[in-house]
């Protein structure tokens, strides 16, 4: 889940940025290497993006925990990254 405080959304550009994120995430469905957005829940104080749970945590934390990856593991992770990024580009989205 990603929680967004409504007070912060009042700052210039934050609401538009969140709206763009939701729109893009809805377009990027159905790929194994991209976290899926299931639902957007709005409460009086926040907006919550309900997303797929990444059981292993995020990639940066994994790499830092492992400290050193064996080549087969690194190749597999890189392939997954490139597969996900290719899907993003196929959907005409630029990741920055």
Automatic annotation (TrEMBL):
InterPro entries listed in its UniProt record: Kinase-like_dom_sf, Prot_kinase_dom
Domain spans labelled Protein kinase: 1-96
Keywords assigned by UniProt, alphabetized: ATP-binding, Nucleotide-binding
Superkingdom classification of source: Eukaryota
Claim: ATP-binding is one of the keywords in the record: yes
Keyword Nucleotide-binding: yes
A GO BP annotation: intracellular signal transduction
Any one Gene Ontology cellular component term annotated for this protein: cytoplasm
A Pfam family the protein falls into: Pkinase
SUPFAM superfamilies: Protein kinase-like (PK-like)
GO molecular function, one term: protein serine/threonine kinase activity
UniProt name for this protein: KIN10 protein
């Amino acid at each position: 889940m990603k929680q967004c405080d409504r007070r912060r959304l009042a700052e210039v550009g934050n609401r538009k940025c969140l709206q763009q994120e939701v729109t893009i995430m809805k377009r990027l469905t159905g790929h194994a290497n991209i976290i899926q957005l299931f639902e957007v829940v709005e409460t009086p104080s926040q907006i919550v993006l309900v997303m797929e749970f990444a059981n292993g945590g995020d990639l940066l934390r994994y790499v830092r925990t492992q400290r050193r990856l064996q080549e087969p593991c690194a190749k597999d992770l890189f392939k997954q990254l490139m597969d996900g990024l290719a899907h993003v580009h196929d959907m005409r989205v630029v990741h920055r």
